[in-house]
Amino acid sequence: MFTGIIESVGRVAAMQPRGGDMRLRVQSGKLDLSDVVLGDSIATNGVCLTVIELPGDGYWADVSGESLRRTTLGGLSIGSAVNLEKALTPSTRLGGHLVSGHVDGVGEIVSIREDARSVRFQVKAPDALARYIAEKGSVCMDGVSLTVNSVAGAAFDLNIVPHTMQETTIHAFRVGTRVNLEVDIIARYLERLVLGDKAAESGAKAEGLTLETLARNGFL
Fold first, then answer.
1. What is the pLDDT of residue 211?
2. Which of 50, 71, 121, 124 is the most exposed place for a label (fewest CB within 10 A)?
3. How many domains are there within the chain?
4. Do 73 and 134 belong together in one domain?
5. Residue 180 parent element (H or E)
6. Which residues, in sequence order, are CB contacts of 93 under 8 Å at separation 6+?
């Protein structure tokens, strides 16, 4: 698990295709790796990756075919900047929100405008994720924990303060930039929970949160 508070911006140093998946080397910049061991997790642009080698200036990780299909990692290139965060510990301050590092889909930046000293980004999420995104709720974008300012259909606004712009890769985003999105973990599990016994049926889908649905599944 992670908090969505970025600890360092790293750089992609190598990308090695491995028969349908990929081995990735990241130079970790100022990220302190002194307490990292093989098998530990590091969120890389919001994707939870397992450390398999520690060459001294960063780490190697395997990226599965599933991760390549569901995230933007396959579109990186040598020198690409990536947001990095080590897995949280019991003593970590939870300054953001609980983030699993399991990306739900890829969104796109559709507009950027200045808002006082901040910058307002509008992001278009995949339609299937729209129901999980709520005004003043949390969303993780490329590993950064952010608050949703407003929602319009599958599009939502994010207000990025100067510190976050400086300490993450967001300052380099442009209209058309594709971003990894992870919705709030509670929303994902709640939708599954309200299915009740239907969750065991193949192809079962949530009907939406209505009083009738809650009552039928024993929540009222």
1. 60
2. 50
3. 2
4. no
5. strand 178-183
6. 3
* Same-domain pairing of 118 and 53: no
pLDDT tens across 170-182, in order?
999 999 999 999 9
Q: pTM (2 decimals)?
A: 0.89
Same domain, 130 and 68: no
Note whether 59 and 28 are within 8 A (CB).
Answer: yes
Alpha-carbon span 58 to 39, nearest angstrom: 14
Domain shared by 81 and 109, yes or no: no
HEC letters along 21-66 = EEEEEEECCCCCCCCCCCCCEEEECCEEEEEEECCCCEEEEEECHH
Q: What is the largest CA-CA distance in the chain?
A: 57
Contact by Cβ (8 Å): 97, 103: no
Residues near 207 by Cβ (< 8 Å), separated by ≥ 6? 194, 213
Q: Is the pLDDT of residue 204 over 70?
A: no
**Of 127, 135, 128, 182, which Cα lies nearest the Cα of 156?**
135
207: in domain? no
17 with 69, same domain? yes
Domain that holds residue 41: 8-86
Are 187 and 140 within 8 A, CB to CB?
no
Q: Are 33 and 59 in contact (CB under 8 A)?
A: yes
